[in-house]
Each structure stands twice: as C-alpha cells, then as structure tokens.
Design brief:
Helix content: 10-25%
Number of helices: 1
Mean pLDDT: 94
Order of helices and strands: EEEEEEH
Largest sheet: 6 strands, antiparallel
Shape: globular
Number of strands: 6
Oligomer: single chain
Radius of gyration: 14 Å
Structural class: alpha+beta
Length: 105
C-alpha cells in the first residue's frame, strides 16, 4: 500500500493517488477513473474541515457530490476520508470483479 505523505493518514489503497495541494486541502484520486475522488478541505479554519466524496462528473463537467461531511476536526476529517477512500475502493473493486473483493460468492 502507498504510504501517505500526510501526518494524519498512514496508508491508502493501491491504485489511488494522493494530491496534497497544501496541508489543508488534499485529494485522493482513483486511478482507473480520475473523476472519482475524496476531497479533504480544511481551508475554512480550525475544526471546520469538510470531506467530500465525488463519484464522477456529468456532461456539463459538474461533480457528482453525494454529500459533504462538514464541521469536522482535522483528526475526524482524516478518519472520515480514510473510511470513504476504502469504501469507494472496495465498491469499485467489487464492481470490476476483482477477486479480493468478491470472496463472498
């Protein structure tokens, strides 16, 4: 697994890329479809981080945002981001039929 270059996340799944724009704005992008990503934004201030799962874009280039999770501490934001990254990774792997994610069949 790739090691995160952030101070709050140890690893993220293979096939994802970490983009650190600055210490308060980070995105993890799914390699097979770069319109799928998790965005952590702490630019609003202390204890006002948001984490946004983005699952694609439409024909007008608008992002599909399920629902941002807001008003988080930095620690909570990284926990939520990690949970979403792994959940989205597992779902994508299962849909792609990767054996690692289809063991219950």
């Amino acid at each position: 697994m790739p090691a995160s270059e952030t101070d709050a996340l140890d690893y993220y799944p293979p096939g994802w890329t970490e983009h650190i724009h600055d210490e308060y704005y980070i995105e993890w992008v799914y390699g097979d479809d770069e319109t799928i990503l998790v965005r952590l934004d702490g630019t609003m201030g202390e204890d006002d981080y948001s984490v946004t799962p983005i699952t694609g874009v439409n024909t007008d280039d608008e992002e599909f945002v399920t629902r941002p999770i807001e008003r988080l501490s930095r620690e909570e934001a990284f926990e939520v981001a990690a949970t979403l990254i792994y959940a989205m990774n597992g779902t994508a792997g299962r849909l792609a039929g990767e054996s690692e994610f289809t063991g219950d069949r």
